[in-house]
């Protein structure tokens, strides 16, 4: 009996240890399976998150493009851009909006893991299965996001092309208005030219082919039309019979600098009853252009008094500093960018050595100044 007892005890102990080893082994196997699934799931999640990030960025851009397309189409007015192109742009914007709405994807819910040590194998295997299942869902999200991204990028490109086509068509219409408005002032033409090119000193629009740009183009075109009407009326007035030839004379000596004209009884604070008076404003850009403001008295006496004509030459002289061959002379130490001494010297060098050339108002330039100004007469 004692021997049996001694023999039985080790046998029972070995069986118990074997059971414990089996439990530990299966738990370790389950945890290893879970760990492998978690690693694979982390990779799938990283890829899905990257794809979703790209998709969300694209939805932001597409949303902006769709809104800009809708705004540009809505801004179109008769005679400035094809209505069919505007309608196509509206359709493209609507399609892009639908794609944005369909791109509202999210990651699947995360798997909750049992943190208890030595969890039963069925728990670990269940977690591993759930993790693998989520990896499959993550991969599906990634593929859908990549597909959605491609669709949104195509929609963005189509919207950009549609906006460019519509704006280009409107710009062509605007150019036709310029071509049909030969007497519109250069001052009115400059903003229209800038809006057509979407560039220049008067162009303050950040995005090309935009609704804001189109509205600026439409405003500029309306100004050209109004100027054409006003200038045609001015030239039809009786006084233009004598003022027109004076303006043509000024243009003939301006060496291609574009000139606009205005006439008033009082110019620069001086009345036509007592003075010949004129002013000039000039701009270097857009080929060089200027506005001359002349007193009625110049018109009244132009044919009889050389001084009246000399004032016109003096004012044209101001405008010559925009010419590339004259600018360095004007800015040199000889003149130091002195507008009045330059204009007076230029008028004298042009053959008008009389008080009206500016001598009476500003004094006589030096012989060196007259000679230097004569280099660009």
3D architecture notes:
The chain has 377 residues and is mostly helical. It is 67% helix and 6% strand. The chain has twelve helices and five strands. It has helices at residues 2-75, 83-102, 121-179, 186-197, 211-236, 240-252, 296-301, 306-319, 327-331, 339-349, 359-362, 367-373; strands spanning 258-264, 266-267, 270-271, 278-283, 289-295. It has a three-stranded mixed β-sheet.
User: Numbering strands along the chain, what is their spatial order in the largest sheet?
Assistant: 1-5-4
Uncertain runs are: 1-25
Rg over CA atoms, rounded to whole Å, is: 42 Å
Number of H/I helices:
12
* Shape label: elongated
Please write the string of helix (H) and strand (E) elements: HHHHHHEEEEEHHHHHH
Helix content: 55-70%
Instruction: Count every beta strand, where a strand is a DSSP E run of 2 or more residues.
Output: 5
Helix-and-strand structural type: mainly alpha
Largest sheet: 3 strands, mixed
Strand content: 5-15%
Mean pLDDT reading: 83
What is the distance, rounded to the nearest whole angstrom, between the alpha carbons of the first and last residues? 140 Å
């Amino acid at each position: 009996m004692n021997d049996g007892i001694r023999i039985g005890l080790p046998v029972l102990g070995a069986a118990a240890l074997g059971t414990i080893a089996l439990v530990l082994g299966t738990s370790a196997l389950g945890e290893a399976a879970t760990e492998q699934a978690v690693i694979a799931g982390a990779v799938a999640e990283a890829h899905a998150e990257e794809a979703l990030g790209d998709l969300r960025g694209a939805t932001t851009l597409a949303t902006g493009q769709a809104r800009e397309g809708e705004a540009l189409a809505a801004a179109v007015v008769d005679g400035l851009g094809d209505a069919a192109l505007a309608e196509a742009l509206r359709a493209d914007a609507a399609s892009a909006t639908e794609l944005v709405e369909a791109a509202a994807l999210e990651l699947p819910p995360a798997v909750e893991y049992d943190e208890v040590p030595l969890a039963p194998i069925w728990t670990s295997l269940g977690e591993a299965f759930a993790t693998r299942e989520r990896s499959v869902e993550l991969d599906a999200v990634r593929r859908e996001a990549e597909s959605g991204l491609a669709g949104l990028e195509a929609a963005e490109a189509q919207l950009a092309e549609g906006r460019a086509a519509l704006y280009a068509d409107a710009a062509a219409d605007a150019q036709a208005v310029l071509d049909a408005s030969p007497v519109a002032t250069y001052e009115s033409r400059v903003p229209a030219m800038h809006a057509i090119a979407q560039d220049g000193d008067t162009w303050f629009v950040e995005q090309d082919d935009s609704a804001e740009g189109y509205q600026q183009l439409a405003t500029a075109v309306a100004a050209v039309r109004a100027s054409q009407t006003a200038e045609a009326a001015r030239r039809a007035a009786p006084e233009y019979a004598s003022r027109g030839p004076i303006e043509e004379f000024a243009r003939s000596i301006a060496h291609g600098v574009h000139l606009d004209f205005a006439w008033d009884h009082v110019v620069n604070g001086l009345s036509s009853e007592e003075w010949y008076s004129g002013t000039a404003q000039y701009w270097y850009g857009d080929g060089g252009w200027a506005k001359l403001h002349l007193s009625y008295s110049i018109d009244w006496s132009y044919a009889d008094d050389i001084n009246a004509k000399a004032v016109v030459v003096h004012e044209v002289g101001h405008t010559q500093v925009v010419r590339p061959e004259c600018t360095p002379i004007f800015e040199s130490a000889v003149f130091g960018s002195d507008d009045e001494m330059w204009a007076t010297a230029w008028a004298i060098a042009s053959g008008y050595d009389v008080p009206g050339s500016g001598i009476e108002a500003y004094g006589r330039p030096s012989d060196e100044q007259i000679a230097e100004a004569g280099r660009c007469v």
